[in-house]
Amino acid sequence: MASWQSLGELTVSNDWQSFSSSVIAETFRITTTIVNQDDWDKWKFRSAAYLRFIYIDNSASVRYYIRVLDTPTVYRFEIPQELKSQLFVLRTPQIIRASRYLPLTPDGNFAQWSFKLEALQG
Question: Could you say which residues of the chain have pLDDT below 50?
């Protein structure tokens, strides 16, 4: 029976951050949570995130644009066939802030939000 494996939860920032676990999965559930709703609604810049995967040969996937949503959302990020054929299927997810206000705006000027990543196993 399939189940969701937590890969962790990170607060999105202006720097690439790696999740602690590497995975083979292609189906993921992402939950975004705003830390301070007032900052999000009134005082600070909003943002999204880019998600990418780093493979064991040190290559990187394309960047996937992820918006802040009210409900957990399931995404499919396929491993490229050429990497599957070389058995390079283990990959480490990474995130970074996505905003038109970058790179000049410091972390503190953005509303904080967290990015929870789960992989479908089994």
Answer: none
